[in-house]
Design goal:
binds heme C; single chain; Cytochrome Bc1 Complex, Chain D, domain 2; 180 residues; mainly alpha
């Protein structure tokens, strides 16, 4: 009997450990987990980055962009060194040739795309990935609302390492309450 209790305890512990281990995979729980990593950018730095983006992205709503990224999160990480999931890690995607994340197996369609990602490409891709590059494997219906795409792209720029001298915050998962 005592033996059983011990075993049960051990299993519980193991499960807890396993759950913790998976935590850094990218699905950051809202609230709760405090990142032990070096502090991500300050709000002021983020705002400065945003302001430095070309129009219309400089006036985008980053908070809404973060919400929109919820549509992507099940398949993509954006932090530096983040894992490839169903889709490739998106860190540094701007200015990067399509289909160039090492260790990720892309469709032929994306491998043969032959372009470098920029805001306009991404905008068209996100509006309707299927028609933009027929034969690609990203099963995402598309984001119709242009304003949502602008917010999302601005968020991606800020989060994906578009920045002079960013010390690359790993997946900050900002849960900052909007104070005014
Ligand atoms: C259901 C999973 C899924 C969702 C949701 C998804 N993607 Fe993808 N994404 C993929 C896959 C798979 C690929 C690779 C496609 C291929 O190889 O044809 C991809 C490729 C990409 C690429 C090209 C990357 C490169 O290295 O060339 C970008 C950019 C991208 N996705 C952005 C997004 C954004 C932004 C969202 C949210 C609006 C999103 N994706 C939603 C699965 C997904």
């Amino acid at each position: 009997m005592l033996e059983q209790t011990k075993t049960a305890l051990a299993i519980t512990c193991l499960m807890a450990l396993a759950a913790c281990g998976q935590g850094d995979g990218g699905s950051a729980p809202a609230g709760g987990a405090k990142a032990p990593a070096p502090a991500p950018r300050s709000e002021a730095e983020v705002q400065a980055l945003l302001a430095a983006l070309p129009a219309p992205y400089n006036t985008a709503d980053l908070e809404n962009g973060r919400r929109q990224f919820g549509l992507c999160r099940s398949c993509h990480t954006v932090g530096e060194g983040g894992p490839n999931m169903t889709g490739p890690n998106l860190h540094g995607v701007f200015g990067r040739p399509a289909a160039s994340v090492e260790g990720y197996r892309y469709s032929d369609a994306l491998q043969n795309a032959g372009f470098v990602w920029d805001a306009e490409r991404l905008d068209a891709w996100l509006a309707n990935p299927r028609t933009y590059l027929p034969g690609n494997r990203m099963t995402f219906v598309g984001l119709d609302d242009p304003k949502k795409r602008i917010d999302l792209i601005a968020y991606l720029k800020v989060e994906s390492g578009f920045a002079p001298g960013d010390a690359a915050a790993p997946e900050p998962a900002p849960a900052a309450p909007a104070e005014s």
